[in-house]
Fold:
Amino acid sequence: MPGAQPYVIAGALRALAVTSSERSQTLPNVATMQEAGISDMEGETLSSILVPAGVPEEIVMKNHQDISWALSQPDFRKRLIELGFEPKGAVRKNSRP
Structure:
């Protein structure tokens, strides 16, 4: 969605449907595939942060805390949505790095 979203918003590209189970926050007027009559089609894009095997657990947990904290920040979430991403990660309130 991030690649196509600016063109849809500008009117240069017409979106027929989104593949997520819910309508997009960025393009709320675009139907889901189910709403468009295709009930067996659903998909989402996953963005992940990976580390090599063997990284100490305390580093993994620190990364998780930092990422969760960032995802809980309204300005950061707003910017991700503006870019066409819809953050759904595990967010822990009050977990600040």
Remarks:
- The first helix runs from residue 5 to 10.
- The radius of gyration is 17 Å.
- Residues 91-97 have pLDDT under 50 and may be disordered.
